[in-house]
Every structure is written in C-alpha cells, then in structure tokens.
UniProtKB/TrEMBL annotation:
SRP54-type proteins GTP-binding domain boundaries: 269-282
Location within or outside the cell: Cytoplasm
Domain comment (free text): Composed of three domains: the N-terminal N domain, which is responsible for interactions with the ribosome, the central G domain, which binds GTP, and the C-terminal M domain, which binds the RNA and the signal sequence of the RNC.
Protein name: Signal recognition particle protein
Catalytic activity: GTP + H2O = GDP + phosphate + H(+)
Domain of life: Bacteria
Enzyme class (EC, first level): hydrolase
Any Gene Ontology biological process: SRP-dependent cotranslational protein targeting to membrane
Annotated residues for binding of GTP: 108-115, 190-194, 248-251
Shown stretch of the complete protein: 1 to 296 of 452
Signal peptide range in chain numbering: none
EC number annotated for this UniProt entry: 3.6.5.4
Length: 296
C-alpha cells in the first residue's frame, strides 16, 4: 500500500538528512518536492496546496531550524500534518447509539465494494456482540441480491427476503419492522449503485434516508480510483447527509490519493477501510497509524 508515495517521500527526506543545519532554502526546496510527490500520488491539488503551506510554515519555524535534528523535526511535522489531514483527533467510530434496530446505510457507485462491505460489516457487528440483519435494497441487479444472500449464508447471518422489482424504500421499511419484531438490533442496508451518479438513484437514496432515518450513512469509495472516488464522494455528500466514508481496496491502492484527500474534500471522516476481499478484511481507520505507515 502506498509504496511509491512512501519511497518518494523517503528520498526527499534522505536528501534533507544530509545537511547538518537546515536553511530556509532547504525547507523551500523540500516543500517543492513534497508538493510534487503528493500530486504524483493523485492527491487533490487544493489539498496539496494547503498541506504544503501548513507544513512549510511549521518547518520554517525556529523550533525546527534551531533543532539539533532538523530533518527529523521536518519529518515529524509532515507525519503530524498527514495524520491531521486524514482526520486525526476526530471521533471516527461508528455511531450505534440509538434505539434498536439501528439502521446503517451503505451507498456508492457500482463496483465500489458496497455488497462486500455489508457482509464485512455484518461480521464485525456480530463479533461486537450485536445481532445484524442484512437488507438487500439493490433491486435493479438481481445478482446483487443473490450476492448478499450468498454472503449471509457464508456468515450464517440472516438476509431480509427481498426480490428484484420491489420498491427499495418499501423493502427497507419492512426490514425495519421485521428487525423490531425479531430481535435484530442492527440493520445493514445495501443500496443500489450505478456506474455514474444519476438523479433517479439520488432520489431513491434520499427517500430511503427520509423513511428509515439511518444512524450512519456511509459512502463506500474504491481507493483504487483515486480522485474519481473523491469527486463522486463530494457529489454524494452534497445530496445526502453522509456520516462517513468506507475506503475499500486499500490493499491494492499503490498511490494513496483518495485516502489522503477524501476527508479534506468532503469533511467526512474515513470510518472503516477494506483491506482485502475476505470478509474479515475490514478495519477501523487510524489516521496516525496510516501517516506513520506512509513515512515508513
Ligand atoms: P458493489 O457493486 O459496490 O456492491 O461492489 P462489490 O461488493 O460487488 O465489490 C466489487 C469487487 O471488489 C468484488 O470483486 C470484491 O471482492 C472487491 N472488493 C471489495 N472490497 C475490497 C477490498 O477491500 N479489497 C479488495 N482487494 N477487493 C475488494
């Protein structure tokens, strides 16, 4: 993950370490190089601009220049600012504090990893001693409903009975009633995705939100699609009250652009990350650990 970004930052800092004392010129040059590395990693250009200006300001401060290990101090500043960029210090845990059944809704484009993430989330809920009900509300692709039913069978977690052609809002409402009557405390709603955003899809998602009032509305983003994922996240966020992001396929993301930009662009925290196709490959996101990992 992010190997290229890590390697490139490493070579920037190697050069810096070669100097005993740092001058403002060194800092300037380093900031220019960090800027290029981040742009090459497909980080949003506005995010890069403000990041580099924040790091540059701190790095040019006396605290760094007068330090006995200035290069080390610059790296520390970069690490702290990277963590900050990804939401360090914010509460990014799932909010389940509501009267059960607590509805959690996943949305995003087709192929982003919604259905897989629903399965992963259901497993996580059960491991956390909750009793989840999976709800297939993608009625346009019968394969999507089947996929969720298969996951449910694999996990031995119940999947609400729904069929292609039914009204997704009706499915979610009935699933909620069913959960209430049958002792499920968490609903995991797998909504429809399209290849592109369209008004009809947004209208449907808004109706689900209005009728079921999900406690979490999570945008599922494919990290491998870089800035495209960020642009789509922003559009979803403008139309739906998103509460967070699940970044999938981080295991295959060589560049890191989506991971580094999505929080800054949408203002919504990355809550969970998908680290593989297996159902236990869902992790809570830790900005500080991620920053640490990037800097090796
Ligand atoms: P949906 O159309 O949004 O429901 O997407 P799916 O859940 O069907 O996932 C699309 C593809 O991405 C499938 O082949 C999944 O196995 C794969 N996938 C989902 N999450 C991850 C992940 O975190 N890592 C990897 N490597 N593959 C993933």
């Amino acid at each position: 993950m992010f190997d290229t970004l890590s390697d490139k930052l490493d070579s920037v800092f190697k050069k810096l370490r070669g100097h005993g004392k740092l001058t403002e010129q060194h800092i300037k040059e380093t900031m220019r190089e960090i800027r290029l590395v981040l742009l090459e990693a497909d980080v949003n250009f506005k995010v890069v601009k403000s990041f580099v200006s924040r790091v540059g300001e701190r790095a040019a401060g006396q605290e760094v220049l007068k330090s006995l290990t200035p290069a080390q101090q610059v790296i520390k500043v970069v690490r702290e600012e990277l963590a900050e960029l990804m939401g360090e210090g914010e509460d990014n845990s799932l909010d389940l504090a509501a009267r059960p059944p607590v509805p959690l809704m996943l949305c995003g484009l087709q192929g982003a990893g919604k259905t897989t993430t629903c399965g992963k989330l259901a497993l996580k809920m059960r491991r956390d001693k909750r009793n989840p009900l999976l709800v297939p509300a993608d009625v346009y692709r019968p394969a999507a409903i089947e996929q969720l039913k298969t996951l449910g069978r694999q996990l031995n977690i119940e999947v609400f009975d729904s069929h292609a052609g039914q009204d997704p809002v009706d499915i979610c409402t009935r699933a909620r009633e069913y959960a209430e009557l049958n002792g499920f405390d968490t609903l995991i709603l797998d909504t429809a995705g399209r290849l592109h955003i369209d008004e009809e899809l947004m209208g449907e998602l808004k109706r689900i939100v209005a009728n079921v009032a999900p406690q979490e509305i999570l945008f599922v983003a494919d990290a491998m699609t870089g800035q495209d994922a960020v642009t789509v996240a922003k559009s979803f966020d403008e139309q739906l009250p998103l509460t967070g992001v699940v970044l999938t396929k981080l295991d295959g993301d060589a560049r890191g652009g989506a991971a580094l930009s999505i929080r800054a662009v949408t203002g919504k925290p990355i809550k969970l990350v998908g680290m593989g196709e297996k159902l236990d490959a869902l992790e809570q996101f830790h900005p500080d650990r991620m920053a640490q990992r990037i800097l090796g």
